[in-house]
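Notes continue from the previous slide.

Worked example: a multi-chain complex. Inputs as given:
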Amino acid sequence: MEEHQGSLDQRAQQAAKIIQNPASYKVCMGCDSIVASRVTLCPNCHGYRFEDDRNHVVSQARELGSREQHSVIASDLD
Ligand SMILES: [Zn+2]
């Protein structure tokens, strides 16, 4: 349990950052990962279709921040 706690905290912090500034991010339509808006190819599934609607980014960030799942928040990858 405890080793998962850290990654959940990190995830929540990352999600909070995204919610503050959703315009800098977008959501991969292939795997629901959140990536930086400048990314052209998803680092997780190599998809190239993204949803950049701010409301969509914010709701996805809330979901990823509140529970663990396989999708990654890859916003800090260049
Ligand atoms: Zn993806």
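Summary box: The longest helix spans residues 2-20. The two ends are 31 Å apart (CA to CA).
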